[in-house]
Each structure stands twice: as C-alpha cells, then as structure tokens.
Amino acid sequence: MSINENNAYEITERLAFPRLIGSEGERKAIEVVVDEFKKAGYEHIQREKFKTSFLNWIFARYVFIPLAGFLILFGLLPFISAWINSALNTDFRTYSILTWITLVGFFIAGYKTLGMVNSSTIGLMKDESKNFETENIYVNLKSKNSKATIVYMAHWDTKSQTFPSFVRIIIIMIAAFGDLAMLFLYLVLSIIEFFMPIDILVLDYILLIVCIVLAVIGTLNFFNKTANKSPGAIDNGASVGTVIELARYFKNNPLDNIDFIFLSTSSEELNLGGAKVFIQKHEKKFDPKSTYFINFDGIGGKGIIRVITAYGIPRKSSSDKLNELLLESSKELNIDAKTIYLPTGAWSDFMPIIQKGFDACWLASMGSTKYVHTKKDTMDLVSKEGLKNGLLLSVDVAKKLNDEVS
Fold it and tell me: Which residue among 140, 146, 186, 266 sits deepest, i.e. has the most Cβ atoms within 10 Å of its Cβ?
C-alpha cells in the first residue's frame, strides 16, 4: 500500500477545532486520535494520563518585567552615579562600581530566570501546580528483527495567544539579544570609565532611551495571553494526521529491522509536558544508540520544509544523523527542504528528548507561521502536497535506517 496524503488531510480536518488543555475540545480531540489509530489497524492503543498546568506560560508572561526593570536601572546608572558624586562632592568611580554591582545582581537573579523560558529548559520546571489531567496516546509496531526504533511524534493540543508565533519570536529575540548587548556595552563603558573618566551627556540619554525601548518591547510578552481560539490545523493537526498516516502505512508495509512508536503527545503548548513525561517514563526502554525521534510540529503547510538543526541560547544541536538523512532524502526525492536555527522564542517536543541524550529532530513547514496560535490557523493553510512531502521524507529516512542496521 502506498502513502495516502488524503488520509492525513482528512484526519487534519477532523482535528481542526480549538483543543486547549482543560477544554471540551481536548476531550473531543482525544476521541478523534484514538478513533483514527483504530482505523489505521491498531487494537492496542496506549493511553498514559498525567498532570499538567499553565504555570510555565503564566511565568513566561511575567518574567520580562523584572528584566525590564534591571535594564532601565542600567540606563539610569550614569545619572545616579553623577547625583551621588555631586551629593558627596567627590569624583569617585561610582558609575563603575554601581554597574558591576548591578551586573552581578542581574546575572544572579536573571540568568536562571531567563533559563526557565529558554528553549533548552522550558517544560522542565519542578515547581508546577498540576491542576489538569490529560494524556499521551500512542501505538507500537514491532518488527521481525528489532534492531532499531523510530518514534514519530506530534502533539494534538492547541492554544491561541494574543500575538501570532512569529511576533512572539521576534519580541523575545529582540528583548533577549538587545538586553545582552546593552549589558555588555555598559560593562565596557564602566571599565573605560574606571581608568579614564568620561562624561558624554548625549550618549547617556541615547543609551537610556534604548534601554527603555528594549524594556517596553520585552514587557509586551505580558500581554501575550493564552486562550482557546485557534483551530490548530497547522499547529498541530496536520502533524497528527501525518503520524497516524505513517502508522497506517507501516502497518501494511513493515520494515524488517525497525520497531515503530507512533506518538501523539499532549500539553506541548503549555510546557512540553507530554514529551517530558513520555521520555521520563520510557527512557530506560530505549537504547540511545539505536532510537530515533522524528518530531512533527507545523508540518503540512504550503511552504518549504524546514529542518530545525539547532535551538536555544546557548546553542543546542538536534540530531546530526537524522538531519543529514532528511536532507539527503529531500535531494533524492526533489523535495525543497532547508535548515534553520531557532535561538529562542519557539519550543517543541523534541527538546526534552534531546535533553535526555537521544537522537531527535524537528520537521516543520515555515510558510504559515504568521497564523500559528491564531484563529486563522485553519484548513486553508494545509496543503496536500506539503503533507505528502513530509510523509515521503519520513518513510525514506526510515528505509535508510532500516538498510543501515540490516
């Protein structure tokens, strides 16, 4: 039997409704996913319940407010130091000392805080109030020789936010990189001032204005509230349709050496909770040397396929092996695929998997990101050609891994 992108499209249509954790749509989505796995020929469907919460995104809304305060404080330091020196009638290096004290305070209070919303640690907070119950849903397909395992995964939950994903990413990147650049600049100026006093009032005002602008941009995140208005066709109904169609295809076209797990996770939109819980529960069952996770998040759009090769600050790489195989397959199949690095502002389920030391990659269609997390994330964004390309790439990579371990 051949790949059927129409089946993936129809599954996406069934899932194209708001399905935030805790909503009626969540319960309906679970029923759809279970039903579609049954239609794909699986009798034993694993349903693993776990607790989750909105705490991470509530935290992410507030975190930039104290950071903005620190940044404005840096902008005011030249004026504060001048006032202190004038009051004490001294020319002591007050500016340099205040800058270093504030820097130490910032890095103690701010670095760990930023890490909470950084892509390498989001979803790993320990202090969560677990007030919602949800579930991961998956099926297994054993092979004759069981020499390697591929886990195809995609989250089924959705959320909407005040800002589309691409706006959120831009806001966070400007705030993060802008803050770091300004802190470095003030550190350099404080060192210069310590050895060679400078007093350029115009520069002080310019830097203060820049600090205020960056602070305002960062605090825009406070207004990025989570709601349940997105139908989530691209994020992430089409990806779930892709995983279930792969489950159907390999059920009828098994590989001799590859075991498969077809996983639909929950709570990705809140804290990568489903992926985190799954890997914590099952990691001892998998051999890191022969287990591969292929994560679909935003696949099936009309744009080119993006292979996310790295994420986070500091930079964290996804699986070199899987990325190379995907790019090799894309060339052979004449599918347009390009790599991308996402420094911050975007997260996905493959991140907790990588944190545990497994090979994992992320496939997406980036052409429709401006509508992700909005009510415009409808079936109009889904392309049968995009679905077919994602399916063909995934099958070809599986066959390459099967031949490699034979």
Answer: 266
